[in-house]
Amino acid sequence: MSSPQLSIPPSGRTLWRILAGVSVALAAIGAVLPVVPTTPFLLVAAWAAKRGAPEMYERLHQHAIWGPTLCDWRDQRAISTRAKALAVITMSTSWSFLWFLDSAAPILVVMGVIFVSVGAFVLSCPAPRRSS
Prior knowledge:
By secondary structure, the chain is mostly helical. 73% of the residues lie in helices and 0% in strands.
């Protein structure tokens, strides 16, 4: 599914390209380091690439590993059950580490509220419908 070309001046496209490239780099780091999220950076990369680097946008959506997740979000605003489980497990583990490291109570509360809010959003999204 191709997206319409947006009319953005060359200087603006350069900024979108930089944001997309940095987001892809951060997503790649997140694929290796468990404390850095991958999918949010990929979503930002796709969003920015759509505005400044259409060829990168298409490559991201055709990627063998990350493409299906991006297409599910773009086409259906859906998150797979596996991705939901990984998100909740990762956030729970991260909060547990903060607690184990004896972080200050305000940090535990703020991070708890953020994680519960993000978790509620993720869990409220539908699972992707697969066409046969």
